[in-house]
Please model this.
Amino acid sequence: MRAPNHRVETPSAALSARASLATLTAAVGTPGLAAAAAEPGLLAAVDQHAASVRDSLHGDHRPLTVAALAGYAEGVRAAALEHGWQPPAGPVDWAQPDWALTRLLAVCLLARSLDPRDLA
Model:
């Protein structure tokens, strides 16, 4: 019996998903979550976005995965770019991040909850 292709994660797909999350974490997650730790309002916004992301990925019914989070982040980024969003060229003003950055930061927060072995 063969498994459907959409249920089999190839090694290259897994590597790509991990690389994508690592890049996002370096660019957005590390500085953004540090800022959120110092700013309760930002942390609350990120928590709300994380709950929405978890709900979108049915995280209450099945475990979140690297592939699911990486795919979600890419979808957010692609949709934002289609609507004229431009990623920041320099340091982010975390006092007033836009919706896309807050959503991507929420993905980084959720990625921290994954088993570190899945991210290596």
Summary: The chain has five helices and no strands. Confidence is low (pLDDT under 50) at residues 1-6. Residues 10 and 16 are 10 Å apart (CA to CA).
